[in-house]
Design brief:
The complex is a heterodimer.
Chain A: H1 4-8, H2 10-23, E1 28-34, H3 35-44, H4 46-49, E2 54-61, H5 63-66, H6 69-79, E3 84-88, H7 102-107, E4 111-114, H8 118-127, E5 132-139, H9 144-157, E6 162-169, H10 171-180, E7 188-192, H11 193-199, H12 203-211, E8 215-218, H13 222-238, E9 243-245, H14 257-266, E10 267-274, E11 278-287, H15 296-299, H16 315-319, H17 351-358
Parallel strand pairs in A: 1-2, 1-7, 3-4, 3-5, 5-6, 7-8, 8-9
Antiparallel strand pairs in A: 6-11, 10-11
Helix pairs in contact in A: 2-13, 3-17, 8-9, 9-14, 10-12
Chain B: E1 5-12, E2 19-24, E3 27-32, E4 44-48, E5 51-56, H1 58-78
Antiparallel strand pairs in B: 1-2, 1-4, 2-3, 4-5
The chains are: A alpha/beta, B alpha+beta.
């Protein structure tokens, strides 16, 4: 299973589906954590190939989707300042705040730029010493190292016109919240492979022991996902609850230690609001005091800025796996990628966007 | 955003960021290799937002390239 064709091979796919069918004796609810995996599942119709006993629940693993509306409003407020060059990954520009989005700021003349990396912003800051350069530091554990790296470099280089608006979230506390919910339906997790390249698989051991829930770290290809599901169902049917790694070809158990050390040096763990879900204890990162000068929230004094979610948006229920996107009354009508009510319809990792793109019935 | 992009390391500079020239298919960009201790020219690396976080073998990288290329094509079609 080294090459792409092998990961998409239909005969092998059917073999895996048959193997899963042969295993299943009762209903199981499995949550794929990452929005990238959701897109793969919906795009290739993997959920429709599985036996009816296996229900896939789409998880909260879309950092754009869970960035709270008040942070979008803060981004809008900062980006609207004439002295600011506001830099962001492209996904964030269409995410609705309570009154507008970053595209709206750009269309009114704001200097909003799409960048590929926060490291690009350091160069922009050097080239524009009279302007303030702000990067919207959004992401899970995957982007935290490079966002931290940009701040360390800015401090070392004396770049006083660079700062970051932090929206870093952590996966394990979100899984803990899903498991602690009184509405819990999840029997096992398909964990996100690329997050584990940074963090490894050790963090999941605590969850497995505390909740007796199996977790399989899984890749993004159709056969990765089917193999991960097969491993998960095997554990459930055998009454086991362990951390297993389907994605061994990329994920090492210990992850990337220098990246983890960098995260710890720059950020501290904080309670965090998740859009549509609410506050989750110890589920986010904020800059440590040593780097507080690079915190855009402090620099631009936007602590009081904050807004309200569109009341019609059901993204919180979608992100927790309570409903599928089509169950939202606004799906595909009042809420589309061009006129989104919530972030799940905009992001390349949002479940609503996946259903809109691959499952919309004409 | 949670999904990394694979690229092939073409050159490594001896600077603070251990800046590498990395080929993502036909496109060459800079990425920091500072988080990889044993990276060498010719290695495939998984890059997250401009920073490499893991060394991959070539077949792993090619597999994701093809997926990304396919998705790119679909996005163009959708436009």
């Amino acid at each position: 299973m080294k090459y792409l064709d092998e990961y998409r091979d239909q005969a092998t796919t059917q073999q895996f589906v048959q193997a899963i069918r042969a295993l299943v004796t009762r209903p199981w609810h499995l949550m794929e954590v990452c929005g990238g995996q959701t897109h793969s599942i919906v795009r290739f119709g993997l959920d429709e190939l599985l036996p009816p006993e296996i229900q896939l629940i789409h998880g909260p693993g879309c950092p754009v989707c869970v960035t709270p509306v008040e942070l979008i409003d803060k981004a809008v407020a900062i980006a609207s300042l004439p002295e600011v060059i506001f830099c962001s990954f492209g996904d964030m520009l269409r995410v609705p705040g309570s009154s507008t989005d970053l595209f709206g700021v750009k269309s009114r003349g704001g200097d909003v730029r799409i960048v590929y990396s926060p490291l690009d912003c350091l160069q922009i800051a050097k080239e524009n010493p009279a302007r303030q350069v702000v990067f919207f530091a959004v992401g899970f554990e995957t982007t935290a190292p490079v966002n931290g790296m940009s701040v360390v470099a800015a401090k070392r280089q004396g770049l006083s016109n660079y700062s970051i608006l932090v929206s870093q979230v952590l996966v394990p506390p979100a899984l803990e919240a899903v498991l602690a919910s009184p509405h819990r339906r999840v029997d096992g997790f398909i964990a996100a492979g690329h997050v584990c390249t940074v963090m490894g698989t050790e963090e999941y051991q605590i969850l497995v022991e505390r909740h007796r829930v199996p977790i399989v770290v899984t890749g993004f290809e159709p056969l990765d996902l089917l193999q991960g599901i097969h491993m998960l169902v095997s554990q459930l049917e055998e009454g086991r609850a362990e951390v297993e790694n389907q994605y061994e070809r990329i994920v090492r158990p210990g992850g990337n230690r220098p990246a983890q050390e960098l995260i710890r040096a720059v950020f501290e763990v904080r309670d965090r609001a998740w859009r549509g879900i609410g506050s989750i204890a110890a589920s986010g990162l904020g800059l440590r005091e040593a780097y507080a000068d690079f915190d855009a929230e402090r620099r631009f004094n936007v602590a009081e800025v904050g807004g309200q979610e569109d009341p019609e948006c059901c993204s919180g229920q979608v992100l927790q796996g309570f409903i599928k996107p089509q169950a939202c009354p606004a799906f595909g009508t009042r809420c589309t990628p061009d006129t989104p009510l919530g972030a799940t319809m905009v992001s390349g990792e949002g479940a609503c966007a996946a259903y809109y793109r691959y499952r919309r019935r004409a | 955003m949670a999904q990394g992009i694979p690229g092939k390391v073409l050159a490594i500079q001896d600077d603070e960021m251990k800046t590498g020239r990395v080929a993502f298919g036909d496109e060459v960009r800079e990425a920091s290799l500072a988080l990889l201790e044993d990276v060498q020219v010719g290695d495939y690396v998984l890059v997250q937002a401009g920073s490499a976080v893991e060394i991959m073998n070539e077949s792993q990288a090619l597999e994701i390239f093809a997926l990304l290329k396919e998705m790119e094509g679909e996005e163009k079609d959708a436009r």
